[in-house]
Amino acid sequence: MNPPVHAPADHPPIAKPRIGVLLMNLGTPDGADAKSVKRYLGEFLSDRRVVEIPAIAWQPILRGIILNTRPKKSAHAYQQVWREDGSPLAAFTRAQAARLKDAFGPGVLVDWAMRYGNPAIAERLQAMKDAGCERILLAPLYPQYCAATTATANDKAFAHLATMRWQPAIRTLPPYHDDPLYIGALKTSIAESLARLDFEPETLIASFHGMPKRTLALGDPYHCHCQKTARLLADALGRPVTIAFQSRFGPAKWLGPATDETLVALAKAGTRKVAVVAPGFSADCLETLEELAIRGRESFEEAGGTHFAYLPCLNDEDVSIEMLRNIVSRELEGWVRLP
Ligand SMILES: C=CC1=C(C)c2cc3[nH]c(cc4nc(cc5[nH]c(cc1n2)c(C)c5CCC(=O)O)C(CCC(=O)O)=C4C)c(C)c3C=C
Ligand SMILES: [Fe+2]
Ligand SMILES: [Fe+2]
User: Fold this and answer.
1) CA angle (62 as vertex; 58, 64 as ends), nearest 5
2) CATH code, domain carrying 202
3) Quick check: 19 and 336 in contact, CB under 8 A?
4) How far is the CA of 245 from the centre of ligand 1 (A)?
5) What pLDDT does 4 receive?
6) Is the domain of 73 the same as that of 185?
7) Which of 4, 37, 62, 267 lies most in the core, judged by the most C-beta atoms within 10 Å?
8) Where does this protein hold Fe(2+) (predicted)?
9) What is the side-by-side order of every strand in the sheet holding 108-117?
């Protein structure tokens, strides 16, 4: 970091110009204890993009009821999937950034951040700017656009940019729900996972995170993006894919059919062998490893199913890193001559 030539003595130091790529995911608690989960849920569920109820009505319910009951239950769930290196979602996102570190040449910094919790978007964005990044690609790692995920991650970054005197130029990664690179990566990953099973599933379920149903009528394209991903995936795999939506939250009507109800209905109707994949999650997390792989299996087997397989997300597998490298490279076009 040097002051420019011919600069006055009090000229602030200027870093060598660079480009930044900030991978952003949802966020996760710092620990699997009720206190950490409470802090995380307090931030997450106070986001007006996530719970679209006026704060005056919602905050008393959140602070008075939900944050006094849910953290203990959720902490128990987190403890089932917690790893030595922490939360699975953070571990996989960190690994994705580490594996992409040298993918775009020496002038491009790759980092990661979380919308809720740590590492915070503002902190990592500031670190990128301090390191000289004058152009930054914000990359929310959600294949399907949703206001509650994609938009709020970008909002958080823009809120920090609003505090900067010298703002970097910004691009945002568009949703990639129908990108042949994404569908191809899913196809390869799922085909490999299926080939490793010792049974042939009668049904393959693609389980996406749910959303309140009213968001569809309000113009959120999330539902359509999920439907298109499932259709393209079925075409690519050459087999039917049953779509379902998981992780219902609160009393409102959510997008359906619900994954848990679908598993039970299938078993009751005579299906014995299923595989479940979660294409909307770019990394395994609580919602896949606990809700699908543990509780989903229990529901299916209790209802009479005999064989259940949860197929992992793309995570930091080679096929995933190659997909991310290609998708990000395309967005960096004109900013960088790629190696
Ligand atoms: C992949 C897309 C996601 C959408 C869309 C989404 C919407 C959404 N989620 C909640 C409430 C909760 N989600 C929770 C966990 C969670 N959600 C996603 C992703 C999406 N959420 C991920 C990746 C995770 C896992 C985080 C982790 O640490 O592993 C939770 C917390 C866990 C719990 O207590 O059950 C809640 C709560 C709402 C209300 C919503 C849309 C309106
Ligand atoms: Fe969620
Ligand atoms: Fe739709």
Assistant:
1) 110
2) 3.40.50.1400
3) yes
4) 12
5) 66
6) no
7) 37
8) 209, 287
9) 108-117, 18-28, 133-140, 169-172
Q: Is 209 annotated as a binding residue?
A: yes
- Rounded to an integer, what distance in angstroms lies between the CA atom of residue 190 and that of residue 114? 27
Ligand nearest to the CA of 282: 1
Q: Is the minimum distance from the CB of 26 to ligand 1 under 6 angstroms?
A: yes
Same domain, 224 and 82: no
By mean pLDDT, which of 3-17, 48-62, 107-121 is the weakest? 3-17
124 in a domain, yes or no? yes
The CB of 148 under 6 Å from ligand 1? The reply is: yes
Does 291 map to a domain? yes
Write out the residue range of the structural domain in which residue 66 sits.
18-176+320-331
At 2, is the pLDDT very low, low, confident or very high (cuts 50, 70, 90)?
low
Best mutation site among 286, 294, 295, 314 for ligand 1, i.e. most ligand atoms within 8 A of its Cβ? 286
Q: How many domains does the chain have?
A: 2
* Atom of ligand 1 at shortest range from CA of 249: 39
Q: Does 285 contact ligand 1 (Cβ within 6 A)?
A: yes
Give the dihedral of Cα atoms 316, 193, 249, 95; nearest 10 deg: -10
Ligand 1 mutation pick, 61, 247, 253, 315, max ligand atoms within 8 A of CB? 247
Is the minimum distance from the CB of 28 to ligand 1 under 6 angstroms?
Answer: yes
ipTM exceeding cut-off 0.90 for this assembly = yes
Residues 197 and 248 in one domain: yes
Mark whether 35 and 159 lie in a shared domain: yes
- Residue 171 and residue 196 in one domain: no
- pLDDT tens column, 242-276: 999 999 998 899 999 999 999 999 999 999 999 99
Q: Say if residue 295 is in the same domain as residue 158.
A: no
Whether residue 146 has its Cβ less than 6 Å from ligand 1 = yes
For residue 230, which ligand has an atom nearest its CA?
3
> CA torsion sign, 300 to 302 to 306 to 310?
positive
Say which amino acid occupies 21. V
- Report the candidate in 95, 32, 107 with the shortest Cα–Cα distance to residue 284: 95
- Is residue 200 part of an annotated ligand binding site? no
Rounded to two decimals, the pTM is 0.96
Domain identity same for 129 and 202? no
159 and 124 fall within a common domain: yes
